[in-house]
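Revision sheet: structure tokens.
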Amino acid sequence: MFEIQCECAHMQTAAQAGVYVVLALGALMLFKLLRSTLRFLRDFVLPSSSKAVLSRCGAGKGAWAVVTGASDGIGKWYATELARRNFNVCLISRTESKLNAVAKEIEEKYNVSTSVLPVL
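Predicted:
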């Protein structure tokens, strides 16, 4: 009978150790998730730190951004935002006259270089 009690006590200790291992792994996974979330917020949501991300991407250092559909709508908005954030912009669309107008507007307003590429 002593052996059975000893076995049960040993199994109980092993089960408790297993619970602690699972809790430790869960805490580690939660920590990783929290760290990833905080990095995302720091890099892409918070305005003060997003400047650092843009700088790493080349903003203000002569880097070029390529925007398709840049003569109207969302493409034009993206091109304008990238220029506002000190990227040179290569504008691609089908209508050359609209592209030239957008390029002129961006160059005058944000003092960046633009390139126009009409696609047929």
